[in-house]
Every structure is written in structure tokens, then in C-alpha cells.
């Protein structure tokens, strides 16, 4: 196809000759050479009146470029030349100079707008393709369609448009407020470097540039947003939305919240802290087969971890005031990520193709083996759920994307019924928020505490295992049931709050670790 101006059925906007792959019903087939609109079709369209995809012009307007870019920036449409606002037909004579003028206007937009010009009776129909290189502008600025009106974009709207179209990448954008090395957390960087497998003794600045966490500018190191999220001392000083909220609901909604934690130590720490919160507040059954203990968690823990990572990695970081949520209810766990699916993705695409909204963040997580780079996270989540007998997780999307996990029904039944046939379950919170079932079941953290108490341990050493910071809650929820069961004992029993107090395993506790039995009275 050439670039001539006169023949109908030719699009302005370049001479590449590349076929238009994505079909849009608003315009005729560029390759057919035939008109799709008949006079009868035209009459129906005119009677519909102006709207987002339809504009009437009595003659060729001087500001036609505004309407062209507006439709190209929205979903495409038609401009009918020779039709008045009251839907009456004034008529406009077709000519090669007229068609050439329309295509010249389209070609002078930036980037060029693809149009097809065809006469239908006394009307000239200009079909406008939706642009695949948004946003489009003309000499008067950026425009889009709002109903039947061509509206000029404001500065904020232009910014949001660029972001929504992926023209501005959050993770690659520089963060001028970050000062290196003042705001740089060397410990976070060293921990990441150790996990990354980078060997030798490379200069820190060289590594940061090579992994795209920073760039050199004017002899200084300028951090990008991705680098700030991973390596800043205080991430929320720069991005207030950079944290994960974990909450434990009393029932099936947020009316009563038993526990809530906000984690804001940086992307890596936040993911790990969120998983510790989930582990502390979910239960597990276990059984002894031969001499091996098999833990069966209530939820697919690897899948949940993958979902939390995805929520952080693929979230829309431009959504101020919105953060990732991990919500635990009595019947489900929800992982909520700000922003809909990345542009070009649908719910049906999950597990089949991958679009990385924040490629640098994904790369930094991939380097430390938090994710697979092939975009197979959703497939792995589904596979683990299926293989473990869990209901398949489901995803919902609107302004947020939510992954919903349901418990394994067999594990849930065992937990609710108490121990039986060699199965033990972790503690649960009753309607008042207290723990119950401790005489017949232990949580994963209680079992870990028992193992730690093979040697005498201080309170703070045991709290580290469960990631707890509240001494009172730890004593009441973890240690008190173990003491009541006679599985552990105090080294100074007459002074429970002594600074020299230690906890040690009893003979009954050793028997429990060996066989998984002996907790029922």
C-alpha cells in the first residue's frame, strides 16, 4: 500500500505498509478497498446522535485535528462531515483535495492518526482508529472524548494518561529527594547482595547502576524509585503507600478486627513479615507417618507467598493512599493489590501470559529467587492448590486486584474437630479472640518453641521464633498453653517474671516431639 492522499480506503500515518492486526468495528477494513457503510447504515447512525464515538460537522472545520486526536486517544470513532448538530444533512461535496486535506491533518498529528475517508451519499465519513501509541497530540495540545464533547486534557490528566498507558514507568523514574549515601541502608543492600549470588567485591555504586536501581547523573548517583523501595532506610519517607497491612478478622468481614500490623521495612522485609503474620494466625494439622512428621497447613502457604509477592510487584505504585492488604477471615484469606490488571491483561489471561507493570522491581526480586522470571506465578499458585487438595484460588479485579484463598476442607475439619488418628491442629481464636483447643492441639510456633526449649531459653529468644514483639500476648497465647500442658517448665518457678527466667522442655514435651502424642488429658 502506498501513501497517496486521494484514494479512499487508505490510512494516513506512515508508509510502513504494515498490516493493522487489531480489528476495530468502527472503521472499514483497510485492505478490502470497499465501503462498509451503506446509505441505510448512515441514516441509522445519524439518528443515533452524537456521542463518544460519533461527531457531526457541517463542513470541514479548522480544528478537525482536535477531534481526530480526541477519538484516537479514546476508543476511535467516526466524524460525519456534512451533518448539522440537529442531525439534518447539509451535504458536503466529495473531492480528492478534500480527502488529501483530511489525511494531511491526520498525518500531522503526533503520532499520526490513522483515518479512512469514504463518501456515503452526500456525507463524508471519516473513520478514526484508536491509537496504539497513546497519548496523541496536535498543535493545540492533548484531547480526548468525554461523551459527545472533545475535551482538552489538563496537566494532571495528561500525567495520569501517560501513566495509565505505561509511557511513564514508576520503577524507572528517578527519586530526586533520595540522597546517597545519607538515605541508603547498607544492611538492606548487603542482605540483598548476599541473596543475589553476586560474587567478588564489586563497588556498590556499580552494582546499583547495573541492576537499574540507580543511574549516574552529573557525577552523582541518582536513585530510581525501585532502588528506594529496596534500599532506603525509611521507605515511607519517600512513598507513604509503601507498606503491607495485615489484619485478622473475627468473622467474615472487617467489622471486628482482632489484630492488625503495618509492615514498612522495605519490599523484601514486608513480604517476609506478611508471611510470618499469616503463619502465626493460621492453623495446621499434622500427622506422624513412620518416623516422619508431616505438617498440613490450612492454606497453601507457597501460593499465598507467591500472591503477596505478586501484589507488591505488580501493584500500581501511583495510587497514593493505597497499599497492599493481606486480610485473614474465618473462611478465607484475601491478598489485595492496588490497581487493576496491567494494561493488556484480563482475568482470563492470568496464568497464561505475563505483563510486568514494574519490570525493575520484578528483576530485583528475581535476582534473589523470590520469583520466576517466566511469569508462571499464577500457574504455580493454582498447581499447589490443586495438588494439596485446596479449593482453587480466584481473582477479582476492579480498581484493585484481589486473590482469594479458601482453606483445605479436610484440614479445616480436623482443626475444628480436634486431634484424632494421629492428627494435631494449631490453636484458633474463639469468638472472644482468645485461644481454644490447646489441650489437644499445638500451633506451628508452639511446636517450634518446644524444639527450641530442648536447651534452656530466655523469653526474648523464644519470641524471635514467632516474630512476636508483645511479651504479654506471647506469654498468654504461646507459652501459657505449653506450661498448662506440662510440655515446658520454668527454671525459676516461684518467680515467673524474673529477669533470669528460662524455659526448658519437660519429659512430656520430649515425648510429644518424638511421637506427636501425649497432649490429651
Written overview of the protein:
Helices cover 31% and strands 19% of the residues. The chain is of the alpha+beta class. It folds into 4 domains: 126 residues, Methyltransferase, Cobalt-precorrin-4 Transmethylase, Domain 2; 52 residues, no CATH class; 166 residues, Heat Shock Protein 90; 74 residues, Arc Repressor Mutant, subunit A. The strands form 7 sheets. Strands 11-10-14-15-17-16 form a 6-stranded mixed sheet, covered by helices on one side. A 4-stranded mixed sheet has the order 1-2-4-3, sandwiched between helices. The chain has a 3-stranded antiparallel sheet with strand order 5-6-7. The radius of gyration is 31 Å and the shape is elongated. The N terminus is likely disordered.
CATH topology of the largest domain, by name, is Heat Shock Protein 90
Q: Helical amount among residues, as a percent range? A: 25-40%
Largest sheet: 6 strands, mixed
Question: Based on the structure given, which CATH architecture of the largest domain is correct?
Answer: 2-Layer Sandwich
**β-sheet strand percentage:** 15-25%
Number of domains: 4
Going across the major beta sheet, what is the strand order? Answer: 11-10-14-15-17-16
Q: Briefly note the structural class of the backbone.
A: alpha+beta
Low-confidence stretches: 1-35, 419-440
Put simply, the count of helices is 16
The global form is elongated
Using only C-alpha atoms, the radius of gyration works out to 31 Å
**Can you tell me the CATH class of the largest domain?**
Alpha Beta
What is the strand tally? 22
Distance between the termini: 87 Å
On the 0 to 100 scale, the average pLDDT is 81
